[in-house]
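Researcher: Let's do a round of design. I'm pasting the structure tokens now; please hold your answer until I've finished.
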């Protein structure tokens, strides 16, 4: 199971939101590039970048920072936030991003997802962000009329091979991940699942590994020091 540090960007800084609320933001560093270097130096096998301003505006905003990270770290990067067109996905991949993550488009434009999967295959991942088990879109500001489980099934039918599942109510809270829903999403022959939201202890990581997820994205716990990256990596070796 991969341990993937999250770098969420807002206004050019590295931040964390509480339950996806843009009014409840904590700034952890003014230099996301330096943060990326720090996590990779500590052994991160991959970085999870989120362009929060992009998620709200519908188009990528932190392109220069993303480019600087991709070009200077020795680890693959996955990127989400504001990627809602073929052109936006192509630009992200041209920057050197290994994997692009789409969320809003998965709900509102499944035909786009089908086209992207056909064209880019494994480079496409889907973010299934859930509030009260229903999918959320537009930077988590809107709730759609489809459940997280149904959305994953719909994406699997389109050929999607990887899903990042986040329980918004737990994100940034240091509480615990939603093990029950995560377990329901991990199915033989289904998309690989990467878990996110509320992961803050070694026990959380071990429970997720037992469920069978491909990876775990860790954010606030790494920044507060509640969880060290070296301990997390060692726990799942």
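Researcher: That's everything. Go ahead.
Model: Designed sequence:
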């Amino acid at each position: 199971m991969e341990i993937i540090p999250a770098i969420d960007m807002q206004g050019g800084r590295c931040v964390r939101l509480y339950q996806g609320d843009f009014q409840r933001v904590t700034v952890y560093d003014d230099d996301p590039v330096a943060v990326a270097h720090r996590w990779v130096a500590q052994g991160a096998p991959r970085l999870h970048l989120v362009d929060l301003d992009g998620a709200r505006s519908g188009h990528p905003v932190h392109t220069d920072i993303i480019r600087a990270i991709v070009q200077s770290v020795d680890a693959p990067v996955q990127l989400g936030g504001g990627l809602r067109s073929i052109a936006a996905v192509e630009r992200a991949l041209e920057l050197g991003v290994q994997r692009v993550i789409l969320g809003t488009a998965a709900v509102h434009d499944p035909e786009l997802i089908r086209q992207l999967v056909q064209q880019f295959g494994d480079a496409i991942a889907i973010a299934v962000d859930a509030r009260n088990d229903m999918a959320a879109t537009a930077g988590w500001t809107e709730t759609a009329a489809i459940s997280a489980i149904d959305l994953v099934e719909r994406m699997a039918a389109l050929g999607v091979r990887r899903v990042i599942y986040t329980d918004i109510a737990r994100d940034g809270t240091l509480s615990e991940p939603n093990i029950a829903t995560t377990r329901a999403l991990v199915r033989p022959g289904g998309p690989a699942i990467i878990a996110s939201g509320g992961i803050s202890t070694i026990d959380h990581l071990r429970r997720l590994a037992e469920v069978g997820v491909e990876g775990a994205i860790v954010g606030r716990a790494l920044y507060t020091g509640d969880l060290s990256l070296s301990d997390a990596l060692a726990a799942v070796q």
